[in-house]
Design brief:
The chain is built from no helices and eleven strands. By secondary structure, the protein is mainly beta. The termini are far apart. The chain is globular. Strands 2, 4, 5, 6, 9, 10 and 11 form a seven-stranded mixed beta sheet that branches. A four-stranded antiparallel beta sheet has the order 1-3-8-7, with no helix packed on it.
Length: 119
């Protein structure tokens, strides 16, 4: 099992920015995808963004419709890290954000970090 460490959550006002980071406990994984889901109270877990590598040589980035144009994901295949830059945050972005990693061994999750957007 892979241990994921998340950081960067917090409380901000609408229109402000936050940056989430996630690092895997091992840098030698054959990572396929790293990304973020989020879950708000009373709602289902929602895909926010992901980056998928093709044997480390190229990558594809995907975003949920609600965050396109505001969030940017970046990742380092060699270090097994992923960051999520969140700009122009809205109250509806309030949720617990979970990092995940997909490898040939399966999917592992981080413990979650709270993001709260309120005036």
């Amino acid at each position: 099992q892979v241990h994921l460490v998340e950081s960067g959550g917090g409380l901000v006002q609408p229109g402000e920015s936050l940056r989430l980071s996630c690092a895997a406990s091992s840098s030698s994984l054959r990572v396929v995808t790293m990304g973020w889901f989020r879950q708000a109270p009373g709602k289902e877990r929602e895909l926010v963004a992901h980056v998928t590598w093709n044997f480390g040589n190229s990558n594809y980035r995907g975003y949920g419709d609600s965050v396109k144009g505001r969030f940017t994901i970046s990742g380092d295949y060699a270090k097994n890290t992923v960051n999520l830059q969140m700009d122009n945050l809205k109250p509806e972005d309030t949720a617990v954000y979970y990092c995940y990693i997909d490898s040939p061994e399966g999917r592992d999750w981080g413990q979650g970090t709270q993001v709260t957007v309120t005036s």
